[in-house]
Each structure stands twice: as structure tokens, then as C-alpha cells.
Amino acid sequence: MIKPLILGAASALFLFGAGAAHSHNHGSKEDMSAKAAIEAAVNNTAIRSELDRERDQYRNPVETLSFFGLTPDMTVAELGPSSGWYTRILAPVTAEKGKYIALNGSPNPESERYERQMQWRETFIDRGNAMFGPRATARYIGQTVPFAAPNSVDMVLIFRGMHGQIGRGDVNGLLAEVLSALKPGGVLGIVQHREREDFDTDPVTTMRGYVKQSYIIDLVKAAGFELAATSEINANPKDTADWERGVWTLQAGRPLAEKDPKFREIGESDRMTLKFVKPAQ
């Protein structure tokens, strides 16, 4: 059962207010060029399906990736790309000058899905697909060999996946590997379904898909990252986040036409958008 707690006014202001000041210098030629590249990928109907584009109004990809500071020359790793919604934006943006790395969790030999997990690395990137540049690759995270050399990655992105990483029990090891791979000043960008701070829930044992923003911030800072900025780009006040079946109640995976009218009106989940950086060494 979810138990309401009382949240202090100061904490509420920090968590749900404007957030930390942006250090990014918006308006420069570099910013505009990067934004144009992101917009071009978002508007590419040859790569992105109608269902992809239908979700843009909830996931705000141009604003989100611009907030994280994505540029076309970066080496960018995406953890848990799933069906590739963000991949179909990130891969084209970095295809010519940068590098895209798709990251998935290490296969579990005891899992019924082991064979499919083993095939993932070979099949995720279709070399005949023009959206991938020549340096694009797919790797596993959490293995003996790190997914990238130390200080070699510009940005790691985790979209709507921190609840799964926390629930699997080795999120600290994952964050340590990400910290090692990132260059000093490199970015860890997180978009996550946001649990209400007045709910008494444990993200390790309560699989609702939602995690408290304060929990994520404390967890990632404890791993050695600095919180650079927060944003309400992906906030959704229509999501009460009190669903019995958690975030999956909102039917985000369905086309709008197939969703319950109630959930068409709500849209997708209320989400935090957090930008962390690896401290300069």
C-alpha cells in the first residue's frame, strides 16, 4: 500500500521548481547547429514512424537533447534502447561526425531469454540501415570488459529506465562503469517516471516504474557525479502517479487511437529530466 508522507516546503521547491541554473550557453552558433541536426533527425519520416512522431508531444526530444547538450560530434551511449525510439534520433545525429553506442544489460545464462539476449548485440544494429554511422556499435554493460575505455565517452543517456536498473540490484556498479567511461565534464542524462515525494515507496521492492526525484539525485551523486541542472521539460501534471499498476496503467506503448480515452487525455507519465556531469579531474 502506498502511504502518503509530508514533504517539506523547501524540499518541494527544490525538487519541483526551476531546478539548478543552466550552465549551458544557449544561443551560440554551435547550439543552433546542434539543435538543427536534432530537429532534422526528429523530422525524418523515412526513419521515424508515425507512432514515433505521435509520442514527440510527450517526450519532447528536441528540447530534451538540447538540454543535455547533445552535439553531432559526440560519442553517445544509450542505455537500454529497447525498441529504438530515441535510437532513431541519436544514431542519425551522430552518424557522420560522432559515434552511437547502444548499451544493454549483460545476458543472464539462467534466463529463458538468454539466447535472445546473446543475439541482441549482433542484430540491434543493421549495417544496411543508413541511420547508423560507420562507428556505431552495440555493447553490453556490467561485464568484465567495460563497454568503453576510460574517459572516452561524451554522453550517456538513460530514458525511462532507471527503475529497471535499480530493481535489478546492481545500479551502483552500472553507475561506476558509466562514470569511468565518461570524459571529465561528460554528461549523464536521465529521464525517468517521477514518483510522488509524499508516497512511502521503495523503488527496489516496489515495481511501479516511478522513482522519486530525490532518490535518483542522491543515488547518482553518491556514485560520484555532480548535478548540473534539472528541467521540467517532460513534466506532466495530468499524471497523478498513483495508479494501482504503476506507470504501465497509462498504456504508453499503444497508439493513441487504441488507448482508453481517459489515458489519451492524460498522455504519458510525469517525468524528471536530470543532467549530471563527471567532475573535472
From TrEMBL:
Keywords: Methyltransferase, Signal, Transferase. The keyword Cell inner membrane does not apply. Residues 1-20 form the signal peptide. SUPFAM superfamilies: S-adenosyl-L-methionine-dependent methyltransferases. It comes from the Bacteria. GO terms for biological process: methylation. GO terms for molecular function: methyltransferase activity. This is Class I SAM-dependent methyltransferase.
